[in-house]
TrEMBL record, chain A:
The keyword Chaperone does not apply. It comes from Ornithinimicrobium tianjinense. Molybdate binds at residues 50, 78, 180, 198. It holds the Pfam family SBP_bac_11. Belongs to the bacterial solute-binding protein ModA family. One of its GO terms (biological process) is molybdate ion transport. This is Molybdate-binding protein. Residues 1-31 form the signal peptide. Keywords: Metal-binding, Molybdenum, Signal. One of its GO terms (molecular function) is metal ion binding. The keyword Signal applies. It comes from the Bacteria. Gene3D superfamilies: Periplasmic binding protein-like II.
From TrEMBL, chain B:
The keyword Transmembrane applies. InterPro entries: MetI-like, MetI-like_sf, ModB_ABC, NifC_ABC_porter. This is Molybdenum transport system permease. GO terms for cellular component: plasma membrane.
Length: 259, 261
Protein backbone atom coordinates (compact mmCIF):
# COMPACT_ATOMS: atom_id res chain seq x y z
CA UNK A 1 0.00 0.00 0.00
CA UNK A 2 2.13 2.83 -1.31
CA UNK A 3 0.23 5.79 0.21
CA UNK A 4 0.51 4.35 3.71
CA UNK A 5 4.25 3.90 3.29
CA UNK A 6 4.58 7.52 2.27
CA UNK A 7 2.78 8.56 5.44
CA UNK A 8 4.84 6.52 7.84
CA UNK A 9 8.09 7.54 6.15
CA UNK A 10 9.46 11.00 5.53
CA UNK A 11 6.18 12.83 5.69
CA UNK A 12 5.62 11.75 9.27
CA UNK A 13 9.18 12.64 10.23
CA UNK A 14 8.60 16.12 8.89
CA UNK A 15 5.35 16.56 10.69
CA UNK A 16 6.92 15.45 13.95
CA UNK A 17 9.93 17.73 13.41
CA UNK A 18 7.61 20.65 12.79
CA UNK A 19 5.52 19.95 15.87
CA UNK A 20 8.59 19.44 18.04
CA UNK A 21 9.90 22.84 17.02
CA UNK A 22 6.65 24.25 18.36
CA UNK A 23 6.92 22.28 21.58
CA UNK A 24 10.60 23.06 22.11
CA UNK A 25 10.04 26.78 22.23
CA UNK A 26 8.40 26.34 25.60
CA UNK A 27 11.35 24.36 26.99
CA UNK A 28 13.91 27.14 26.56
CA UNK A 29 14.07 28.22 30.17
CA UNK A 30 14.90 24.70 31.34
CA UNK A 31 17.68 24.29 28.80
CA UNK A 32 19.34 27.55 29.78
CA UNK A 33 19.23 27.14 33.53
CA UNK A 34 20.98 23.77 33.25
CA UNK A 35 23.65 25.51 31.15
CA UNK A 36 24.24 28.14 33.79
CA UNK A 37 24.73 25.47 36.44
CA UNK A 38 27.46 23.68 34.50
CA UNK A 39 29.57 26.86 34.31
CA UNK A 40 28.43 28.58 31.10
CA UNK A 41 29.37 25.69 28.88
CA UNK A 42 26.09 25.77 27.03
CA UNK A 43 25.39 28.14 24.19
CA UNK A 44 21.75 28.50 23.25
CA UNK A 45 20.76 29.39 19.70
CA UNK A 46 17.26 30.40 18.70
CA UNK A 47 17.00 30.18 14.94
CA UNK A 48 14.58 30.48 12.06
CA UNK A 49 12.83 27.19 11.23
CA UNK A 50 14.48 27.15 7.80
CA UNK A 51 17.91 26.78 9.47
CA UNK A 52 16.86 23.59 11.30
CA UNK A 53 19.08 21.05 9.53
CA UNK A 54 22.08 23.16 8.63
CA UNK A 55 22.52 24.61 12.14
CA UNK A 56 22.68 21.10 13.57
CA UNK A 57 25.70 20.46 11.32
CA UNK A 58 27.38 23.75 12.28
CA UNK A 59 26.68 23.03 15.96
CA UNK A 60 28.27 19.59 15.64
CA UNK A 61 31.46 21.15 14.19
CA UNK A 62 31.51 23.71 16.97
CA UNK A 63 31.03 21.11 19.71
CA UNK A 64 33.79 18.97 18.20
CA UNK A 65 36.20 21.92 18.40
CA UNK A 66 35.07 22.96 21.89
CA UNK A 67 35.06 19.91 24.16
CA UNK A 68 32.57 20.20 26.99
CA UNK A 69 30.48 22.78 25.17
CA UNK A 70 26.89 21.97 24.28
CA UNK A 71 24.99 23.90 21.65
CA UNK A 72 21.28 24.00 22.47
CA UNK A 73 19.16 24.85 19.45
CA UNK A 74 15.53 25.74 19.21
CA UNK A 75 13.74 26.50 15.97
CA UNK A 76 10.58 28.49 15.37
CA UNK A 77 9.27 31.24 13.16
CA UNK A 78 11.64 34.23 13.36
CA UNK A 79 8.88 36.48 14.63
CA UNK A 80 8.18 33.99 17.44
CA UNK A 81 11.87 33.98 18.37
CA UNK A 82 12.08 37.78 18.50
CA UNK A 83 9.00 37.92 20.67
CA UNK A 84 10.43 35.26 23.02
CA UNK A 85 13.76 37.08 23.36
CA UNK A 86 11.96 40.37 24.01
CA UNK A 87 9.98 38.61 26.75
CA UNK A 88 13.25 37.46 28.32
CA UNK A 89 13.70 33.94 26.95
CA UNK A 90 17.28 32.91 27.73
CA UNK A 91 19.38 32.78 24.55
CA UNK A 92 22.92 33.57 23.43
CA UNK A 93 22.62 33.72 19.65
CA UNK A 94 19.67 34.58 17.43
CA UNK A 95 19.55 33.85 13.69
CA UNK A 96 16.51 35.12 11.79
CA UNK A 97 15.02 34.78 8.32
CA UNK A 98 14.88 38.25 6.78
CA UNK A 99 15.99 41.67 7.97
CA UNK A 100 12.38 42.68 8.58
CA UNK A 101 12.05 40.05 11.31
CA UNK A 102 14.90 41.71 13.20
CA UNK A 103 13.20 45.09 13.53
CA UNK A 104 11.02 44.32 16.59
CA UNK A 105 14.02 42.98 18.55
CA UNK A 106 14.58 45.44 21.39
CA UNK A 107 17.86 47.38 21.30
CA UNK A 108 18.58 46.36 24.90
CA UNK A 109 18.65 42.70 23.82
CA UNK A 110 21.18 43.27 21.02
CA UNK A 111 24.68 42.54 22.31
CA UNK A 112 26.52 42.41 18.97
CA UNK A 113 25.86 44.14 15.65
CA UNK A 114 23.75 41.94 13.37
CA UNK A 115 25.71 40.51 10.44
CA UNK A 116 24.31 38.74 7.39
CA UNK A 117 24.73 34.99 7.80
CA UNK A 118 23.35 33.87 4.47
CA UNK A 119 20.56 34.42 1.93
CA UNK A 120 17.64 32.36 0.74
CA UNK A 121 14.97 32.46 -1.98
CA UNK A 122 11.50 31.01 -2.31
CA UNK A 123 10.48 27.87 -4.15
CA UNK A 124 7.22 26.00 -4.61
CA UNK A 125 7.10 22.60 -2.91
CA UNK A 126 4.79 19.89 -4.27
CA UNK A 127 4.24 16.28 -3.15
CA UNK A 128 6.40 13.77 -5.08
CA UNK A 129 3.44 12.68 -7.23
CA UNK A 130 2.43 16.33 -7.82
CA UNK A 131 -1.34 15.55 -7.78
CA UNK A 132 -2.39 19.02 -8.93
CA UNK A 133 0.26 19.08 -11.71
CA UNK A 134 1.83 22.35 -10.56
CA UNK A 135 4.54 23.34 -13.07
CA UNK A 136 5.07 26.98 -12.19
CA UNK A 137 3.75 30.07 -10.49
CA UNK A 138 1.04 30.44 -13.18
CA UNK A 139 -0.65 27.34 -11.66
CA UNK A 140 -1.04 28.94 -8.22
CA UNK A 141 -4.42 30.40 -9.14
CA UNK A 142 -5.83 27.11 -10.49
CA UNK A 143 -9.36 26.38 -9.22
CA UNK A 144 -9.51 23.91 -6.32
CA UNK A 145 -5.76 24.04 -5.68
CA UNK A 146 -4.87 23.41 -2.03
CA UNK A 147 -2.15 25.97 -1.38
CA UNK A 148 -0.46 26.39 2.00
CA UNK A 149 1.76 29.32 2.96
CA UNK A 150 3.23 30.63 6.19
CA UNK A 151 1.02 32.98 8.18
CA UNK A 152 1.61 36.61 7.15
CA UNK A 153 3.17 37.46 10.53
CA UNK A 154 6.25 35.25 9.93
CA UNK A 155 9.04 35.96 7.42
CA UNK A 156 8.22 33.17 4.95
CA UNK A 157 4.62 34.42 4.96
CA UNK A 158 5.72 38.00 4.32
CA UNK A 159 7.96 36.78 1.51
CA UNK A 160 5.10 34.74 0.00
CA UNK A 161 2.83 37.80 0.12
CA UNK A 162 5.53 39.85 -1.63
CA UNK A 163 5.83 37.13 -4.27
CA UNK A 164 2.06 37.15 -4.92
CA UNK A 165 2.21 40.96 -5.18
CA UNK A 166 5.00 40.81 -7.75
CA UNK A 167 3.11 38.19 -9.72
CA UNK A 168 -0.05 40.29 -9.46
CA UNK A 169 -2.08 37.32 -8.17
CA UNK A 170 -4.31 36.75 -5.16
CA UNK A 171 -4.46 32.96 -4.86
CA UNK A 172 -6.86 30.97 -2.65
CA UNK A 173 -5.02 29.76 0.46
CA UNK A 174 -6.04 26.57 2.30
CA UNK A 175 -4.06 27.29 5.47
CA UNK A 176 -1.65 29.79 6.99
CA UNK A 177 0.88 27.68 8.87
CA UNK A 178 2.82 28.91 11.93
CA UNK A 179 6.29 28.44 10.40
CA UNK A 180 7.97 27.27 7.22
CA UNK A 181 8.56 23.70 8.38
CA UNK A 182 4.89 23.31 9.29
CA UNK A 183 4.07 24.51 5.76
CA UNK A 184 6.53 22.01 4.31
CA UNK A 185 5.14 19.11 6.34
CA UNK A 186 1.59 19.72 5.06
CA UNK A 187 2.99 19.27 1.54
CA UNK A 188 5.20 16.31 2.47
CA UNK A 189 2.14 14.58 3.93
CA UNK A 190 0.25 15.18 0.69
CA UNK A 191 -2.46 17.18 2.45
CA UNK A 192 -1.62 20.28 0.40
CA UNK A 193 -1.02 20.37 -3.36
CA UNK A 194 1.61 23.07 -3.13
CA UNK A 195 3.36 25.18 -0.51
CA UNK A 196 5.47 28.32 -0.73
CA UNK A 197 8.68 27.60 1.19
CA UNK A 198 12.36 28.46 0.96
CA UNK A 199 14.39 26.60 -1.64
CA UNK A 200 16.54 25.22 1.18
CA UNK A 201 13.48 23.54 2.72
CA UNK A 202 12.87 21.66 -0.51
CA UNK A 203 16.51 20.53 -0.47
CA UNK A 204 16.28 19.52 3.20
CA UNK A 205 13.11 17.50 2.54
CA UNK A 206 15.34 15.07 0.66
CA UNK A 207 12.76 13.75 -1.77
CA UNK A 208 9.70 14.04 0.50
CA UNK A 209 8.67 17.01 -1.68
CA UNK A 210 9.68 18.20 -5.13
CA UNK A 211 10.67 21.78 -5.90
CA UNK A 212 9.14 23.91 -8.63
CA UNK A 213 11.28 26.93 -9.54
CA UNK A 214 10.01 30.49 -9.26
CA UNK A 215 11.38 32.82 -12.00
CA UNK A 216 14.29 34.86 -10.63
CA UNK A 217 12.74 38.22 -11.56
CA UNK A 218 9.69 37.51 -9.36
CA UNK A 219 11.48 35.69 -6.55
CA UNK A 220 12.04 37.23 -3.13
CA UNK A 221 15.55 37.17 -1.65
CA UNK A 222 15.70 37.06 2.15
CA UNK A 223 18.94 37.78 3.99
CA UNK A 224 19.43 36.13 7.37
CA UNK A 225 20.83 38.30 10.17
CA UNK A 226 22.66 36.69 13.09
CA UNK A 227 23.66 38.40 16.34
CA UNK A 228 24.57 37.76 19.96
CA UNK A 229 21.88 38.45 22.55
CA UNK A 230 23.98 37.60 25.62
CA UNK A 231 27.45 38.49 26.82
CA UNK A 232 28.64 34.88 26.62
CA UNK A 233 32.02 34.66 24.79
CA UNK A 234 30.75 31.41 23.29
CA UNK A 235 28.05 33.38 21.48
CA UNK A 236 30.59 35.36 19.42
CA UNK A 237 32.68 32.24 18.82
CA UNK A 238 29.66 30.38 17.50
CA UNK A 239 28.78 33.27 15.17
CA UNK A 240 32.39 33.17 13.89
CA UNK A 241 31.94 29.47 13.24
CA UNK A 242 28.78 30.16 11.24
CA UNK A 243 30.57 32.79 9.13
CA UNK A 244 33.73 30.68 8.67
CA UNK A 245 34.48 28.93 5.38
CA UNK A 246 33.40 25.63 6.97
CA UNK A 247 30.11 27.06 8.23
CA UNK A 248 29.37 28.76 4.92
CA UNK A 249 30.11 25.49 3.11
CA UNK A 250 27.38 23.77 5.15
CA UNK A 251 25.00 26.59 4.24
CA UNK A 252 25.96 26.40 0.55
CA UNK A 253 25.49 22.60 0.59
CA UNK A 254 22.00 23.12 2.03
CA UNK A 255 21.16 25.45 -0.88
CA UNK A 256 21.57 28.80 0.88
CA UNK A 257 23.07 31.71 -1.06
CA UNK A 258 26.20 33.70 -0.23
CA UNK A 259 25.67 36.51 2.35
CA UNK B 1 -10.12 29.61 65.90
CA UNK B 2 -7.38 29.48 68.59
CA UNK B 3 -3.81 30.64 67.91
CA UNK B 4 -2.63 27.07 68.30
CA UNK B 5 -5.23 25.93 65.78
CA UNK B 6 -4.08 28.48 63.22
CA UNK B 7 -0.44 27.51 63.70
CA UNK B 8 -1.25 23.86 63.38
CA UNK B 9 -3.01 24.48 60.08
CA UNK B 10 -0.14 26.47 58.54
CA UNK B 11 1.52 23.45 56.86
CA UNK B 12 -1.75 22.96 54.99
CA UNK B 13 -2.62 26.58 54.35
CA UNK B 14 0.80 27.69 53.02
CA UNK B 15 1.06 25.23 50.11
CA UNK B 16 -2.61 25.76 49.34
CA UNK B 17 -2.07 29.52 49.16
CA UNK B 18 0.95 29.06 46.86
CA UNK B 19 -1.19 26.80 44.69
CA UNK B 20 -3.91 29.42 44.39
CA UNK B 21 -1.36 32.17 43.66
CA UNK B 22 0.29 30.03 40.98
CA UNK B 23 -2.99 29.81 39.10
CA UNK B 24 -4.44 33.24 39.84
CA UNK B 25 -1.32 35.38 39.25
CA UNK B 26 -1.04 34.63 35.50
CA UNK B 27 -4.75 35.36 35.09
CA UNK B 28 -4.34 38.66 36.92
CA UNK B 29 -1.26 39.49 34.82
CA UNK B 30 -3.40 39.17 31.72
CA UNK B 31 -5.64 41.85 33.21
CA UNK B 32 -2.66 44.02 34.23
CA UNK B 33 -0.93 43.85 30.83
CA UNK B 34 -4.11 44.59 28.88
CA UNK B 35 -4.31 48.00 27.23
CA UNK B 36 -7.65 48.94 28.83
CA UNK B 37 -7.77 52.47 27.35
CA UNK B 38 -7.79 51.12 23.81
CA UNK B 39 -9.46 47.80 24.53
CA UNK B 40 -12.34 48.59 22.21
CA UNK B 41 -9.90 49.18 19.33
CA UNK B 42 -8.11 45.91 20.01
CA UNK B 43 -11.40 44.04 20.28
CA UNK B 44 -12.33 45.45 16.87
CA UNK B 45 -9.29 43.77 15.26
CA UNK B 46 -10.63 41.37 12.60
CA UNK B 47 -8.94 38.37 14.20
CA UNK B 48 -11.00 38.78 17.39
CA UNK B 49 -14.52 38.67 15.95
CA UNK B 50 -13.66 36.23 13.20
CA UNK B 51 -12.03 33.63 15.45
CA UNK B 52 -14.64 33.99 18.22
CA UNK B 53 -17.48 33.47 15.72
CA UNK B 54 -15.75 30.37 14.39
CA UNK B 55 -15.15 29.05 17.91
CA UNK B 56 -18.81 29.64 18.83
CA UNK B 57 -19.95 27.79 15.71
CA UNK B 58 -17.56 24.84 15.97
CA UNK B 59 -17.96 24.28 19.71
CA UNK B 60 -21.77 24.38 19.32
CA UNK B 61 -21.69 21.67 16.64
CA UNK B 62 -19.19 19.76 18.76
CA UNK B 63 -21.52 19.83 21.76
CA UNK B 64 -24.48 18.51 19.73
CA UNK B 65 -22.28 15.65 18.46
CA UNK B 66 -20.95 15.00 21.95
CA UNK B 67 -24.51 14.77 23.37
CA UNK B 68 -25.75 12.47 20.59
CA UNK B 69 -22.73 10.15 20.70
CA UNK B 70 -21.62 10.51 24.29
CA UNK B 71 -24.84 10.07 26.27
CA UNK B 72 -25.69 6.56 25.00
CA UNK B 73 -22.01 5.63 25.21
CA UNK B 74 -21.82 6.73 28.85
CA UNK B 75 -25.00 4.73 29.64
CA UNK B 76 -23.68 1.55 27.98
CA UNK B 77 -20.36 1.90 29.81
CA UNK B 78 -22.20 2.49 33.09
CA UNK B 79 -24.51 -0.54 32.84
CA UNK B 80 -22.74 -3.09 30.66
CA UNK B 81 -21.23 -6.04 32.48
CA UNK B 82 -19.48 -7.37 29.41
CA UNK B 83 -15.78 -8.11 30.08
CA UNK B 84 -14.78 -5.85 27.19
CA UNK B 85 -16.49 -2.83 28.78
CA UNK B 86 -13.45 -1.96 30.88
CA UNK B 87 -11.33 -1.96 27.74
CA UNK B 88 -13.87 0.21 25.95
CA UNK B 89 -13.83 2.68 28.80
CA UNK B 90 -10.03 2.80 28.79
CA UNK B 91 -9.84 3.32 25.02
CA UNK B 92 -12.47 6.05 24.95
CA UNK B 93 -10.61 8.01 27.60
CA UNK B 94 -7.17 7.89 25.90
CA UNK B 95 -7.57 11.44 24.49
CA UNK B 96 -7.83 12.69 28.11
CA UNK B 97 -4.14 12.02 28.61
CA UNK B 98 -2.92 12.11 25.01
CA UNK B 99 -1.04 15.28 24.00
CA UNK B 100 -3.50 17.07 21.69
CA UNK B 101 -0.93 17.45 18.93
CA UNK B 102 -0.61 13.65 18.83
CA UNK B 103 -4.38 13.53 18.43
CA UNK B 104 -3.96 15.87 15.47
CA UNK B 105 -1.37 13.58 13.89
CA UNK B 106 -3.67 10.60 14.48
CA UNK B 107 -6.60 12.41 12.85
CA UNK B 108 -4.39 13.25 9.84
CA UNK B 109 -3.33 9.61 9.56
CA UNK B 110 -7.01 8.63 9.56
CA UNK B 111 -8.82 11.37 7.67
CA UNK B 112 -6.01 13.04 5.70
CA UNK B 113 -5.88 12.65 1.94
CA UNK B 114 -3.46 9.76 2.32
CA UNK B 115 -5.00 8.59 5.57
CA UNK B 116 -6.52 5.22 6.31
CA UNK B 117 -10.09 6.42 5.60
CA UNK B 118 -9.38 9.83 4.06
CA UNK B 119 -7.95 8.43 0.82
CA UNK B 120 -11.12 6.40 0.27
CA UNK B 121 -13.32 9.38 1.18
CA UNK B 122 -11.59 11.53 -1.42
CA UNK B 123 -11.59 8.97 -4.21
CA UNK B 124 -15.22 7.81 -3.77
CA UNK B 125 -17.05 10.87 -2.40
CA UNK B 126 -14.64 13.64 -3.40
CA UNK B 127 -14.57 14.82 0.23
CA UNK B 128 -11.32 16.08 1.72
CA UNK B 129 -11.37 17.03 5.38
CA UNK B 130 -8.07 18.70 6.35
CA UNK B 131 -8.14 22.52 6.22
CA UNK B 132 -11.94 22.60 6.57
CA UNK B 133 -14.22 23.76 9.38
CA UNK B 134 -15.39 20.13 9.60
CA UNK B 135 -11.83 19.17 10.53
CA UNK B 136 -11.93 21.72 13.37
CA UNK B 137 -15.13 20.14 14.69
CA UNK B 138 -13.63 16.64 14.42
CA UNK B 139 -10.55 17.71 16.39
CA UNK B 140 -12.81 19.24 19.05
CA UNK B 141 -15.01 16.15 19.31
CA UNK B 142 -11.90 13.97 19.59
CA UNK B 143 -10.62 15.85 22.64
CA UNK B 144 -13.96 16.80 24.26
CA UNK B 145 -16.00 13.59 24.03
CA UNK B 146 -13.96 11.69 26.67
CA UNK B 147 -14.48 14.47 29.23
CA UNK B 148 -18.22 14.26 28.70
CA UNK B 149 -18.42 10.47 28.72
CA UNK B 150 -16.35 10.07 31.90
CA UNK B 151 -18.34 12.70 33.76
CA UNK B 152 -21.80 11.47 32.66
CA UNK B 153 -20.90 7.81 33.17
CA UNK B 154 -20.02 8.66 36.77
CA UNK B 155 -23.52 10.08 37.42
CA UNK B 156 -25.21 7.21 35.59
CA UNK B 157 -23.37 4.59 37.61
CA UNK B 158 -24.56 6.31 40.77
CA UNK B 159 -28.15 5.90 39.61
CA UNK B 160 -30.05 3.24 41.54
CA UNK B 161 -30.62 0.18 39.33
CA UNK B 162 -34.17 -0.14 40.67
CA UNK B 163 -35.21 2.82 38.50
CA UNK B 164 -34.31 0.98 35.29
CA UNK B 165 -35.89 -2.22 36.66
CA UNK B 166 -39.17 -0.50 37.55
CA UNK B 167 -39.27 1.14 34.14
CA UNK B 168 -38.73 -2.27 32.55
CA UNK B 169 -41.51 -3.92 34.59
CA UNK B 170 -43.83 -1.11 33.50
CA UNK B 171 -43.11 -2.12 29.91
CA UNK B 172 -40.53 0.45 28.85
CA UNK B 173 -37.89 -0.80 26.41
CA UNK B 174 -34.20 0.06 26.88
CA UNK B 175 -34.42 3.12 24.61
CA UNK B 176 -37.48 4.52 26.36
CA UNK B 177 -35.98 3.85 29.79
CA UNK B 178 -32.84 5.70 28.71
CA UNK B 179 -34.79 8.66 27.28
CA UNK B 180 -37.59 9.01 29.83
CA UNK B 181 -35.95 7.84 33.07
CA UNK B 182 -32.16 7.86 32.94
CA UNK B 183 -31.43 11.11 31.09
CA UNK B 184 -33.80 13.31 33.16
CA UNK B 185 -32.35 11.92 36.38
CA UNK B 186 -28.72 12.58 35.46
CA UNK B 187 -29.25 16.05 34.00
CA UNK B 188 -26.89 17.64 36.56
CA UNK B 189 -24.16 15.20 35.51
CA UNK B 190 -24.90 15.95 31.85
CA UNK B 191 -24.62 19.68 32.53
CA UNK B 192 -21.32 19.25 34.37
CA UNK B 193 -19.92 16.99 31.67
CA UNK B 194 -21.08 19.42 28.99
CA UNK B 195 -19.33 22.32 30.69
CA UNK B 196 -16.07 20.38 30.92
CA UNK B 197 -16.31 19.14 27.34
CA UNK B 198 -17.23 22.56 26.00
CA UNK B 199 -14.33 24.23 27.80
CA UNK B 200 -11.98 21.62 26.42
CA UNK B 201 -13.33 22.12 22.89
CA UNK B 202 -13.05 25.91 23.20
CA UNK B 203 -9.42 25.65 24.28
CA UNK B 204 -8.43 23.05 21.70
CA UNK B 205 -5.22 24.06 19.88
CA UNK B 206 -2.75 21.27 19.10
CA UNK B 207 -5.02 18.86 17.26
CA UNK B 208 -6.68 21.73 15.38
CA UNK B 209 -3.52 23.38 14.03
CA UNK B 210 -2.13 19.98 13.05
CA UNK B 211 -5.24 18.56 11.40
CA UNK B 212 -7.19 21.62 10.28
CA UNK B 213 -4.44 24.19 9.75
CA UNK B 214 -5.07 27.86 10.38
CA UNK B 215 -7.13 30.01 8.04
CA UNK B 216 -8.99 33.09 9.32
CA UNK B 217 -12.75 32.50 9.39
CA UNK B 218 -12.47 28.85 8.29
CA UNK B 219 -10.17 26.98 10.69
CA UNK B 220 -8.57 29.69 12.83
CA UNK B 221 -10.43 29.30 16.12
CA UNK B 222 -9.94 31.64 19.08
CA UNK B 223 -6.87 29.86 20.52
CA UNK B 224 -5.24 29.76 17.07
CA UNK B 225 -6.18 33.42 16.66
CA UNK B 226 -4.43 34.25 19.93
CA UNK B 227 -1.33 32.39 18.76
CA UNK B 228 -1.27 34.10 15.35
CA UNK B 229 -2.03 37.57 16.72
CA UNK B 230 0.67 37.35 19.39
CA UNK B 231 3.28 37.64 16.60
CA UNK B 232 2.02 40.88 15.12
CA UNK B 233 -0.50 42.47 17.45
CA UNK B 234 0.04 41.27 21.04
CA UNK B 235 -2.69 43.58 22.37
CA UNK B 236 -5.25 41.96 20.07
CA UNK B 237 -4.03 38.60 21.41
CA UNK B 238 -4.52 39.82 24.97
CA UNK B 239 -7.95 41.26 24.16
CA UNK B 240 -9.01 37.95 22.61
CA UNK B 241 -7.59 36.08 25.63
CA UNK B 242 -9.62 38.31 27.94
CA UNK B 243 -12.82 37.49 26.07
CA UNK B 244 -12.10 33.77 26.32
CA UNK B 245 -11.30 34.13 30.02
CA UNK B 246 -14.53 36.04 30.62
CA UNK B 247 -16.68 33.57 28.68
CA UNK B 248 -15.13 30.59 30.48
CA UNK B 249 -15.62 32.14 33.90
CA UNK B 250 -19.21 33.17 33.19
CA UNK B 251 -20.24 29.77 31.81
CA UNK B 252 -18.54 27.80 34.56
CA UNK B 253 -19.90 30.20 37.19
CA UNK B 254 -23.45 29.87 35.86
CA UNK B 255 -23.23 26.09 35.78
CA UNK B 256 -21.71 25.95 39.23
CA UNK B 257 -24.47 27.97 40.82
CA UNK B 258 -27.13 25.87 39.07
CA UNK B 259 -25.72 22.34 38.93
CA UNK B 260 -22.27 21.79 40.38
CA UNK B 261 -22.71 22.31 44.11
Amino acid sequence: MAPATALTGRGLTFLLAATTSLALTSCEATAESSGALSGDRTVTVLAAASLTDVLAEIAADFEADHPGVTVETSFAASSTIVQQVNEGAPADVVALAGQQALEPLEQARRVSEPVVLTTNTLELAVPPDNPAAVDGVEDLTAAGLRLVVCQPEVPCGTAAATLFDRLGIDPQVASYEPDVRATLSKVALGEADVGVVYRTDVAAADGAVLGVEIPAQDNVVSSYPVLAVSGSPLALELIEEMLSARGQQHLADAGFGAP
Amino acid sequence: MTARGAGARLPLVAPAAVGVAFIVLPLLSLLVRADWADLATHLAAPVVGQSLRLSALTTSITMVAVWILGTPLAWLLARSEHPLTAWGRALVTVPLVLPPVVGGVALLMTWGRRGVLGGWLESTLGVTLPFTTAAVVMAEIFVALPFYVISVEGSMRGLDRRFDEIAATLGAGPVRTFRAVVVPMVLPGIAAGSALAWARALGEFGATITFAGSFPGRTQTAPLGVYAALERDPQAAIALSLVMLLVSVVVLGALRSRWLR
